[in-house]
Structures are given as structure tokens and as C-alpha cells.
Amino acid sequence: MLINKIKSSSRFIAGLDVGTTKICMTIGEVTKDGISIISVNTTPSAGLKKGVVVDIDATVNSIRRAINDAEKYTGRIVSEVFVGIAGSHIKSFVSSGSAVIKGSEVTVEDVERAIDAASAVDVPLDREIIQIIPTDFILDGQSGIKDPVGMAGHRLNVNAFIITGAVTSIQNLLKCCQGAGLEVKDIVLQPLASAEASIVPQERESGIALIDIGGGTTDIAIYKDNWLRHVVVFGIGGNHFTNDLSVVLRLSFQEAERIKIKNGYILPEIADKNNEVDIEAIDGQIRKIPQKYISEVLLPRSEELLELINKEITAINTEGVPICGAVLTGGASLLQDFERLAESVLSMPVRIGYPEVIVNAHNPKLYSGKAEHPCTLNSLKHEFNHPMYTTGIGLVIYGAESFFSAESAFMQNDSSAGIVNKMTGWFKNILRKMGG
Q: Mean pLDDT across the stretch 162-166?
């Protein structure tokens, strides 16, 4: 799962984040010491609405621009990518399966058969399985097992998280990538990719909600005990904040976006009551408005979104899965005071998900753990340390993990790659349906 094998000691992997407002191409170099992000290139996105392709030609052109920028910056030819997917069409559910252990201890084949049993579910014809993620293994009634291979037992049960998407939405995204000259190595749900680049191991263990606020959607992934517990996508994103400003203040969308980024305080009591902001009206006239007016427009939408998020977290807590905090990523997460309002509404600690936290989490000098394998993010330039880049960086980390898992199995001449391939088998089925 490579872009180009430049030399035997390093590999280059690309992640493509196709968003409603931007296309982000991220390239990482993977060596035996870990992953270094060498480029992050963004271009304006066209042809998407709420994370879903609505104009193939416009989307293809946007992706091509991102490819060209990345190739000019790195001097490498980009031909293969891991691509993120989002949109309100994404749905998920939990399934379970079991397998009788054939020998004296659990083997990789036993785990595969249990996952196969969990995945044998009826899915509507208009939907396709994107990912299957084991969330708990139970061996002879003992739950909470993270890796059952090698353990003694008679019967293995698995609970798995099955993520599905609309067939047409998936196929259109793939067509856009192929139309831009890219081979898609795998599709990854965007909040799971963002979690790879913004959540540390301790948070996954104690209970954390990853909240990725993009331009067209807000994606949530909840983890507890190192297992994925819940995924949901809302059709509300940063563009809705911009549109509110555009409608209420009678501004062009571009001017409203500028005002949101520069003067977008959420809490009226924090905004400077005496400060006035210059805005350019639709008719081209420049006028001044109190900064607090901007806050009064942004606050209701912020509260609406956070209440939806709080409802999901509360439901998980009610099911006996306590969540101890939240991490905000995506460009809209940096609205002034949004983090503070989120802490108030969610009644829990909230932080912004800067990718640098992953570098620090695996640095032996800063963290009591150790660098575990070549998939550790060990280098990140300051300009790449931004919440809007977490999905792209996470896609590179995911790609590195997929490759090294398969390569390790091949070098050991065993079938351990089978479980890794379960994650991509459904994606390959989609390609076959498209004739790819």
C-alpha cells in the first residue's frame, strides 16, 4: 500500500481527505523509525455537499489540483492513496459472531471465522459495508479480551462494529479518485482517521469522544477501553455557521467566511462590546457592525450542534460506557470560545485535537511508553500541526499500519494478514461491482 518505493529503507504513503470545503492531500515518509509528514497540501473543494459528491467533474478537477500541488511540493508522483469518507449517509451497527476453537488454543483462522460470522448480516441493496471493526472478544464467557490469539479456550465470540454507506455515494467518490488518475488502496471512515492523529492511548482507554467538525458534516467517534463504541455523522458543519452569517448580515458567502474566521467569537459576553467590525455587504458597501452581533448569530448554531453531540454521549453513558472527555478537530473547531462552550454543554473536559499530541504521546522522553513500531508519528512540522489536517495525517497513519501488518505476516510466512484483509475485503467488493 504505497505511493512509490523510493528506497528500501523508506516508503511514501498518501492520504486524501475529500471534504466539502477543501481537498487535503497528505504525504508521509515511513521508515523503521516511524512516520514523518513531509507535505500537506490543500485546495478549495468543489462538487461536494455535506461530504457527498454532487458534481463528478468539479470534484475530479479539485482532486487533480491537490495532486499537482503535492507533486510539485514533494517531487514525487502520487498514484495511490488512502481516501477518507464521510457524509450523513454513513450508518453503523453492532453485530456478533462466534467460532468453535478447532485446536487447543485460538488461532488467527479462528478469529477470522468469528469475524466472518459477525459480518454475515443482511445489508440493504442500496448500502455497502465500508469497514468491520472488532470491538470485543469473548473467550468461553470471558469478555474484554483484546487479542485472543494464542489463548486456550473452546469457543470464541466477537462483537464487531459494522459501518455502512450508500452504494452510490461510495461509487461516486471512487469514480472521482479514478478520474483524477488515482488508485484507491482503501476507504477509511473520516472520524476514525482523525482519531488516529488526535487521540492518545490513555484517552481511548478511559473514554473519549472524537468530534470532527468539517465544512459539511460533524463526525463523532467514541472510544472506551481501547474499543470503538459508537460512530455517528450529523449533517451540520462549519458551512452552516458561515451561511447563518451570510443570511442574517446580508453578506456574500466568501465575506461571511472571512468574518467567521477573523471575528467569529461564539460567546457574546466574551466579544468586545465596544469593538466594531468592518464588513462588505452584498451591494459592495462597507459598513460597521458591533462584534457582539456576530456572536449572537453564531451562538444558536453552536448550541444546536453541541446539544446533538451531548445527546449521543449521554446515550452511551446510559448504556454503561462512561466518557471522560472530548477532543475537537476540524477547521470549525477553532471558532473562538467554542471549546469553552463545549465544556459547558457537555459537562466534561474538552481540548482541541492538534496532531502534535500523537508525536508527544509516543516520544519516550515525554511519555512513559515507548515507540512501538514504524507506524508511530515521530515528526511533524509546525505548519502541519492544525486540527483541519487531522484526517489527512490519520489516513497516512492508517495506511502505514495496514502495510506493515500485511508485510509482517508475509515475512513470518503465516496467515495473520487475513484479519487485516478483512478490513479491505468489503472495499474490494465495491470495486468489483464497479468493474474496477
A: 90
